Amino acid sequence: MMRNELPMPSHFRPDSVGEVWRVSYQQLAADARKWSRQHRIPAAWEDKFKIFLLLVDVQNTFCIPEFELYVGARSGTGAVDDNRRLCEFIYRNLDILTRICPTMDTHQAMQIFHPIFLVDAQGEHPPPFAVISKEDVEKGLWKINPDVANSLKFNESFYNEFLLYYTQKLREGGKYALTIWPYHAMLGGIGHALVSAVEEAVFFHAVSRTSAPDFQLKGLHPLTENYSVIRPEVMDGPGGTGIAEKNTRLVEAIVEYDAVVVAGQAKSHCVSWTMDSVLAEISAMDGNLAGKIYLLEDCTSPVVIPGVVDYTDQANRDFKRFSGAGVHVVKSTDPVDGWPGMRL
């Protein structure tokens, strides 16, 4: 017998998902408690089959059209449509989602993928979306900005060799080449915040189910990109000096739950790299663990910058690869208890 999904609560406004606004926490908390009593929603600790919802970087900077790195996909409305479906998925399945884990891409101005970090021979910074290759560095086209190095207290010998080392490590690891991104997801800024409608849904879930969301910050280290929430792109510097670490606590949480549902932005970057890292970690423990991961294919979109770059085909190939590894690629609109392996 199929379970009855919950209705949409009256506060949810689908047409506002692409906007930024203040969540009314006190009123929403009162509504959530009333909602849980009305629909007999149990506290999360009572769940016998525990579901972990991993929301990758569902932040204004990626999801609101006028913000810095809006993921519009080929349709132009990608992230907005994704988040409307995501909110609806959370509300319909509020009673079976045990815990929600939002990851937060978190940056400051002086990081290796922001323009200020590099300079050419004339002291000019690379433009947004420039791709910096190992060969560019070898030719001396780009180097680390010495003023940034001094500000961050790098010694001269370290920063002179680090950029070449870094671009080489990216290539050896099969990673994207160093991309210069517009300043985005700035710590303390409005772009860093969760999309308002998603924040509202996460808060409503937290109070309804007495389940604290597990926020995970990533991307703060100045010397490496961090597409995956599990691990940065490069974890050491020249000579084996450690610069960053894996998020082992999140890996342990993923293993602990009976099912892990993944959504967020962008399909071609942070979602795909997170999935690669998760699969690498759990496959080393047990090859069957991939079967408890569910990718919401209609709640994520690839990076498409018209006339500049289109990662759609790459993202689709990645998802086929994940499916081949045992991950379930599903739609948010399909009943969860009809997904393979779900034992609700």
List keywords for this structure.
single chain, 344 residues, alpha/beta, Rossmann fold, six-stranded parallel β-sheet, two-stranded antiparallel sheet, 10 helices
Q: What is this structure's SSE topology?
A:
Elements: H1 25-38, E1 51-56, H2 60-63, H3 78-92, E2 99-105, E3 118-119, E4 131-132, H4 134-138, E5 143-144, H5 146-151, H6 156-172, E6 178-179, H7 196-209, E7 216-218, H8 248-256, E8 259-264, H9 270-285, E9 293-296, E10 304-305, E11 309-310, H10 312-324, E12 328-330
Parallel strand pairs: 1-2, 1-8, 2-7, 8-9, 9-12
Antiparallel strand pairs: 3-5, 4-6, 10-11
Helix pairs in contact: 1-7, 3-7, 9-10
Summarize it.
The chain is built from 10 helices and 12 strands. It has about 350 residues and is of the alpha/beta class.
What would you note in describing this structure?
This protein has two domains: 14-103 and 184-338, 3-Layer(aba) Sandwich (Rossmann fold), CATH 3.40.50.850; 115-179, no CATH class. Helix content is 33%, strand content 12%. The chain contains ten helices and twelve strands. The protein has helices spanning 25-38, 60-63, 78-92, 134-138, 146-151, 156-172, 196-209, 248-256, 270-285, 312-324; strands spanning 51-56, 99-105, 118-119, 131-132, 143-144, 178-179, 216-218, 259-264, 293-296, 304-305, 309-310, 328-330. The strands form four sheets. Strands 7-2-1-8-9-12 form a six-stranded parallel β-sheet. Strands 3-5 form a two-stranded antiparallel sheet. A two-stranded antiparallel sheet has the order 4-6.
Widest beta sheet: strand line-up: 7-2-1-8-9-12
Task: Please give the largest β-sheet.
Answer: 6 strands, parallel
> How much strand content do the residues show?
5-15%
CA-CA gap between termini: 11 Å
- Secondary-structure arrangement, i.e. CATH architecture of the largest domain: 3-Layer(aba) Sandwich
- The geometry reads as globular
Helix content: 25-40%
Class from helix and strand fractions: alpha/beta
Number of domains: 2
Q: What is the typical, i.e. mean, pLDDT? A: 94
Q: How many H/I helices?
A: 10
